[in-house]
Amino acid sequence: MSRLRIRGRRRDAGAVATIVAILLAGGVLLGMTALVVDIGQLYAEREELQSGADAAAMAVALDCAQRGDVTRGNECLAAASTVPGYADRNARDGDSAIVRVCGSDSRLAPCSSVPGGSLADCIGTIPAGATYVEVRTKTETNGGDYIYPASFAQTLVDGYSGTTVGACSRVGWGSPGVGVALTFCLTEWNDATGSGGNLAPAPPAVPAGSYEVVLRTKSPGGGKGGGPADPCEKKKSGADLPGDFGWTDTPDAATCQTLISSAGMYDVDPGNDVVKSCEAVFVAARTNRTPIIVPIYNEATGTGSKGVYRLEGFAAFVITGWGNLFPGVKDADSTLTSKSAKSLCPSGDVCVFGYFTNALLPWSGGFSSTTNYGATVIKTIG
């Protein structure tokens, strides 16, 4: 029995050898090898080009999106001459070609004339409300050629010397469409920032203590319902909407965020049942000095839980502390001025401390067409 098995294996080995010899003689195995190797190299080349396009597009977007920064603005203007370095550093051989740097920002060349329809196009549609930049890259060899040479296929196919590989990346920036459940009055933003002319520097910079503002709600004031007299408020009899800040209704229980229509009204929450996640968001933002995105309203109507705000836009606010803000939560002294919460927010008031800034924040949500009050979000969109 064992001899029969051995003879069977030898016959199998002989059959395999015969098949291999036939395939080699016919060039089938060589063709398959050429196909696998060359296609693998093309995929690797495209991956490098895509990484380079991604890095270059994000670098340009970061320059163009920095509001009020003259140096970064000049970099945006010079994008076409500065991006090749980002693309080259992501290429294994240190070489890649920039086909086009374009976008919807007025400092960039328009993208309308860029030909489309190839596999190297940016994917997806451009979101409404987003300003964007596109960077397109393609193969470039050390010798200055734009054809990626084939390793094996050119020996099997007459006239085939390689192909050009390309990639595209699109990064967008603009106003967000979502903010935390905290909301501020436009008048307070204007007073604190000189109508936008005196925003504090963004983290990691530490601004002067004079930038800190103390915003209150449910504090004694001129409002008929016991709240402050509010220039943003259309008062009705007994109105008691927040003067400096308030809470939006039904925030996401996991993130403390509220999705707001870009041109709409949003509901008031008196603040007595703010979701637990807001406490965690505020603690983390204060500890890490991370700007939060807050809706800015310009008009409030109604009373109590029946009130509504009219959205103007979104601001970036760095929380430095609070007083009497969350039921059962310890007050937080100012991290900027070291002033105690008790001195900044007397008993009976509900307060939040911090400063407004220009902030460019990574983002995963959508964009809006609202006025920018300092909060700019950025993400890859194609």
UniProtKB/TrEMBL annotation:
Record key words, sorted: Membrane, Transmembrane, Transmembrane helix
Residues in Putative Flp pilus-assembly TadG-like N-terminal domain copies: 15-61
Transmembrane portions of the chain: 12-37
InterPro entries with a match to the protein in the record: Tad_N
Highest rank taxon of the organism: Bacteria
Pfam family, one: Tad
Protein name, entry field: Putative Flp pilus-assembly TadG-like N-terminal domain-containing protein
